[in-house]
Amino acid sequence: MAVSATNPVGTAATSSATSLVGQQEIASNFQEFLQLLTTQLKNQDPLSPLDTNQFTQQLVEFSSVEQQLKTNSDLDQLVALNKTSQATAALSFVGSQVTADGATTQLKNGVAVWNVTSPRPATAAISILDQNGNTVWTGQQTLATGAQSFAWNGRTSTGSVAPDGLYTIQIAAQDATGQNVTVSTQYSGTVTGVDLSGAQPLLQVGSSYLTISQIRSIQKPASSAGSSLSSSLGSSLGSLLTPGA
Q1: Does residue 8 register a pLDDT over 50?
Q2: Could you confirm whether domain 97-219 is CATH 2.60.40.4070?
Q3: 48: helix, strand or coil
Protein backbone atom coordinates (compact mmCIF):
# COMPACT_ATOMS: atom_id res chain seq x y z
CA MET A 1 0.00 0.00 0.00
CA ALA A 2 1.46 3.37 -1.03
CA VAL A 3 0.23 6.44 0.78
CA SER A 4 1.69 9.81 -0.21
CA ALA A 5 0.51 12.46 2.21
CA THR A 6 0.88 15.97 3.42
CA ASN A 7 0.13 16.68 7.06
CA PRO A 8 -3.16 18.59 7.44
CA VAL A 9 -2.22 19.39 11.04
CA GLY A 10 1.04 20.94 9.88
CA THR A 11 -0.86 22.97 7.28
CA ALA A 12 -3.24 24.22 9.97
CA ALA A 13 -0.31 25.13 12.23
CA THR A 14 1.31 27.11 9.41
CA SER A 15 -1.92 28.98 8.70
CA SER A 16 -2.42 29.71 12.40
CA ALA A 17 1.15 30.98 12.69
CA THR A 18 0.60 33.29 9.71
CA SER A 19 -2.60 34.66 11.24
CA LEU A 20 -0.84 35.11 14.60
CA VAL A 21 1.92 37.15 12.98
CA GLY A 22 -0.70 39.32 11.28
CA GLN A 23 -2.51 39.89 14.57
CA GLN A 24 0.76 40.80 16.29
CA GLU A 25 1.57 43.31 13.54
CA ILE A 26 -1.86 44.94 13.71
CA ALA A 27 -1.60 45.12 17.53
CA SER A 28 1.82 46.78 17.25
CA ASN A 29 0.55 49.28 14.69
CA PHE A 30 -2.50 49.98 16.83
CA GLN A 31 -0.30 50.76 19.86
CA GLU A 32 1.78 53.17 17.77
CA PHE A 33 -1.41 54.78 16.50
CA LEU A 34 -2.68 55.29 20.06
CA GLN A 35 0.66 56.81 21.13
CA LEU A 36 0.61 59.22 18.21
CA LEU A 37 -3.02 60.09 18.88
CA THR A 38 -2.33 60.71 22.57
CA THR A 39 0.64 62.92 21.71
CA GLN A 40 -1.45 64.90 19.23
CA LEU A 41 -4.24 65.38 21.75
CA LYS A 42 -1.79 66.60 24.39
CA ASN A 43 -0.19 69.07 22.02
CA GLN A 44 -3.17 70.21 20.01
CA ASP A 45 -3.96 73.86 19.55
CA PRO A 46 -6.90 74.73 21.85
CA LEU A 47 -8.12 77.18 19.22
CA SER A 48 -7.97 74.54 16.47
CA PRO A 49 -8.64 71.11 18.02
CA LEU A 50 -8.20 67.87 16.11
CA ASP A 51 -11.05 66.50 14.01
CA THR A 52 -12.47 63.61 16.06
CA ASN A 53 -14.13 62.11 12.99
CA GLN A 54 -10.74 61.43 11.42
CA PHE A 55 -9.22 59.36 14.23
CA THR A 56 -12.58 57.68 14.92
CA GLN A 57 -12.57 56.45 11.31
CA GLN A 58 -9.02 55.17 11.77
CA LEU A 59 -10.08 53.25 14.89
CA VAL A 60 -12.89 51.63 12.91
CA GLU A 61 -10.45 50.63 10.15
CA PHE A 62 -8.11 48.99 12.69
CA SER A 63 -11.03 47.07 14.16
CA SER A 64 -12.15 45.93 10.71
CA VAL A 65 -8.69 44.63 9.80
CA GLU A 66 -8.41 42.78 13.12
CA GLN A 67 -11.79 41.12 12.56
CA GLN A 68 -10.78 40.10 9.03
CA LEU A 69 -7.61 38.45 10.35
CA LYS A 70 -9.66 36.47 12.87
CA THR A 71 -12.09 35.38 10.13
CA ASN A 72 -9.20 34.21 7.95
CA SER A 73 -7.78 32.21 10.85
CA ASP A 74 -11.14 30.50 11.44
CA LEU A 75 -11.47 29.68 7.72
CA ASP A 76 -7.96 28.17 7.67
CA GLN A 77 -8.92 25.89 10.54
CA LEU A 78 -12.12 24.80 8.76
CA VAL A 79 -10.18 24.02 5.56
CA ALA A 80 -7.64 21.97 7.53
CA LEU A 81 -10.42 20.01 9.27
CA ASN A 82 -12.10 19.33 5.92
CA LYS A 83 -8.83 18.03 4.44
CA THR A 84 -8.35 15.76 7.44
CA SER A 85 -11.89 14.40 7.01
CA GLN A 86 -11.30 13.78 3.28
CA ALA A 87 -8.01 12.00 4.00
CA THR A 88 -9.65 9.74 6.56
CA ALA A 89 -12.46 8.87 4.14
CA ALA A 90 -10.01 8.18 1.31
CA LEU A 91 -7.85 5.85 3.42
CA SER A 92 -10.91 3.71 4.18
CA PHE A 93 -11.06 2.80 0.46
CA VAL A 94 -7.69 0.99 0.54
CA GLY A 95 -8.17 -2.71 -0.19
CA SER A 96 -11.66 -2.20 -1.62
CA GLN A 97 -12.78 -3.20 -5.10
CA VAL A 98 -14.14 -0.09 -6.85
CA THR A 99 -15.83 0.63 -10.15
CA ALA A 100 -15.30 3.99 -11.84
CA ASP A 101 -16.15 5.76 -15.08
CA GLY A 102 -13.43 5.35 -17.67
CA ALA A 103 -12.22 3.39 -20.69
CA THR A 104 -8.75 2.40 -19.47
CA THR A 105 -8.16 -0.65 -17.31
CA GLN A 106 -5.39 -3.05 -16.34
CA LEU A 107 -4.57 -6.22 -18.25
CA LYS A 108 -3.34 -8.65 -15.61
CA ASN A 109 -2.68 -12.37 -15.99
CA GLY A 110 -4.27 -12.34 -19.42
CA VAL A 111 -7.56 -10.72 -18.41
CA ALA A 112 -8.91 -7.17 -18.82
CA VAL A 113 -12.56 -6.44 -18.04
CA TRP A 114 -14.71 -3.41 -18.76
CA ASN A 115 -18.30 -2.74 -17.69
CA VAL A 116 -20.24 -1.59 -20.75
CA THR A 117 -23.68 0.06 -20.72
CA SER A 118 -25.79 0.46 -23.84
CA PRO A 119 -29.14 2.33 -23.88
CA ARG A 120 -30.56 -0.13 -26.46
CA PRO A 121 -29.51 -3.24 -28.41
CA ALA A 122 -26.62 -2.51 -30.75
CA THR A 123 -23.80 -3.98 -32.78
CA ALA A 124 -20.44 -2.63 -31.67
CA ALA A 125 -17.06 -2.40 -33.34
CA ILE A 126 -14.58 -2.66 -30.48
CA SER A 127 -10.91 -1.65 -30.51
CA ILE A 128 -8.33 -2.19 -27.78
CA LEU A 129 -5.43 0.29 -27.64
CA ASP A 130 -2.18 0.05 -25.71
CA GLN A 131 -0.58 2.85 -23.69
CA ASN A 132 1.01 4.30 -26.84
CA GLY A 133 -2.32 4.54 -28.64
CA ASN A 134 -1.62 1.60 -30.94
CA THR A 135 -4.56 -0.66 -31.78
CA VAL A 136 -3.72 -4.19 -30.65
CA TRP A 137 -7.10 -5.86 -31.12
CA THR A 138 -10.35 -5.24 -32.99
CA GLY A 139 -13.59 -7.21 -33.06
CA GLN A 140 -17.38 -7.16 -33.28
CA GLN A 141 -19.68 -7.56 -30.31
CA THR A 142 -23.47 -7.62 -29.93
CA LEU A 143 -24.60 -5.45 -27.03
CA ALA A 144 -27.83 -5.90 -25.10
CA THR A 145 -29.73 -3.13 -23.38
CA GLY A 146 -28.25 -2.14 -20.02
CA ALA A 147 -25.04 -3.02 -18.19
CA GLN A 148 -22.86 -5.94 -19.22
CA SER A 149 -19.23 -7.00 -19.02
CA PHE A 150 -16.71 -7.23 -21.83
CA ALA A 151 -13.61 -9.31 -21.17
CA TRP A 152 -10.48 -9.32 -23.34
CA ASN A 153 -8.12 -12.26 -23.03
CA GLY A 154 -4.99 -10.29 -23.85
CA ARG A 155 -4.58 -11.79 -27.32
CA THR A 156 -3.81 -9.33 -30.10
CA SER A 157 -5.33 -9.45 -33.57
CA THR A 158 -2.21 -11.31 -34.75
CA GLY A 159 -2.61 -13.94 -32.04
CA SER A 160 0.33 -12.85 -29.90
CA VAL A 161 0.05 -12.35 -26.14
CA ALA A 162 -0.08 -8.70 -25.05
CA PRO A 163 2.03 -7.75 -22.03
CA ASP A 164 0.34 -6.77 -18.78
CA GLY A 165 -0.37 -3.05 -18.50
CA LEU A 166 -2.97 -0.39 -19.17
CA TYR A 167 -5.27 -0.77 -22.17
CA THR A 168 -8.07 1.46 -23.46
CA ILE A 169 -11.30 0.31 -25.08
CA GLN A 170 -13.01 2.22 -27.90
CA ILE A 171 -16.56 1.34 -28.94
CA ALA A 172 -18.43 2.47 -32.05
CA ALA A 173 -21.97 1.09 -31.87
CA GLN A 174 -25.07 1.24 -34.08
CA ASP A 175 -28.59 -0.02 -33.56
CA ALA A 176 -30.70 -2.01 -36.03
CA THR A 177 -31.69 1.16 -37.91
CA GLY A 178 -28.09 2.26 -38.39
CA GLN A 179 -28.30 5.02 -35.80
CA ASN A 180 -25.21 5.63 -33.68
CA VAL A 181 -25.50 4.46 -30.07
CA THR A 182 -23.53 6.10 -27.27
CA VAL A 183 -22.04 3.40 -25.04
CA SER A 184 -20.60 4.23 -21.63
CA THR A 185 -17.69 2.29 -20.14
CA GLN A 186 -16.51 1.67 -16.60
CA TYR A 187 -13.67 -0.35 -15.15
CA SER A 188 -12.97 -2.05 -11.83
CA GLY A 189 -9.88 -2.48 -9.71
CA THR A 190 -8.54 -2.66 -6.18
CA VAL A 191 -7.51 0.53 -4.37
CA THR A 192 -3.87 0.02 -3.41
CA GLY A 193 -2.93 3.48 -2.19
CA VAL A 194 -3.97 7.09 -1.60
CA ASP A 195 -2.23 10.27 -2.76
CA LEU A 196 -2.92 13.13 -0.32
CA SER A 197 -0.43 15.61 -1.77
CA GLY A 198 -2.97 17.57 -3.85
CA ALA A 199 -6.06 19.63 -3.15
CA GLN A 200 -8.17 16.47 -2.92
CA PRO A 201 -7.30 12.83 -2.22
CA LEU A 202 -6.61 10.56 -5.19
CA LEU A 203 -7.22 6.82 -5.02
CA GLN A 204 -4.64 4.64 -6.74
CA VAL A 205 -6.15 1.79 -8.76
CA GLY A 206 -3.44 -0.01 -10.67
CA SER A 207 -1.49 2.74 -12.42
CA SER A 208 -4.46 5.12 -12.46
CA TYR A 209 -5.48 7.77 -9.94
CA LEU A 210 -9.15 8.56 -9.29
CA THR A 211 -11.02 11.19 -7.32
CA ILE A 212 -13.67 9.91 -4.92
CA SER A 213 -16.36 11.54 -7.08
CA GLN A 214 -15.41 9.22 -9.99
CA ILE A 215 -16.21 6.11 -7.96
CA ARG A 216 -19.54 4.52 -8.91
CA SER A 217 -19.55 1.44 -6.67
CA ILE A 218 -17.49 -0.03 -3.83
CA GLN A 219 -17.10 -3.61 -2.70
CA LYS A 220 -15.33 -4.25 0.57
CA PRO A 221 -13.19 -7.39 0.81
CA ALA A 222 -14.62 -10.20 2.93
CA SER A 223 -12.92 -10.25 6.32
CA SER A 224 -11.33 -13.56 7.28
CA ALA A 225 -10.67 -12.46 10.84
CA GLY A 226 -14.01 -13.74 12.12
CA SER A 227 -13.68 -17.16 10.45
CA SER A 228 -10.09 -17.55 11.68
CA LEU A 229 -11.17 -16.72 15.21
CA SER A 230 -14.06 -19.21 15.04
CA SER A 231 -11.73 -21.93 13.73
CA SER A 232 -9.22 -21.27 16.49
CA LEU A 233 -11.91 -21.37 19.19
CA GLY A 234 -13.36 -24.54 17.71
CA SER A 235 -9.99 -26.31 17.76
CA SER A 236 -9.36 -25.26 21.36
CA LEU A 237 -12.78 -26.46 22.53
CA GLY A 238 -12.33 -29.72 20.63
CA SER A 239 -9.04 -30.46 22.37
CA LEU A 240 -10.59 -29.76 25.77
CA LEU A 241 -13.56 -32.08 25.13
CA THR A 242 -11.52 -34.95 23.61
CA PRO A 243 -10.69 -37.68 26.23
CA GLY A 244 -7.00 -38.01 26.89
CA ALA A 245 -6.20 -34.66 25.24
Answers
A1: no
A2: yes
A3: strand
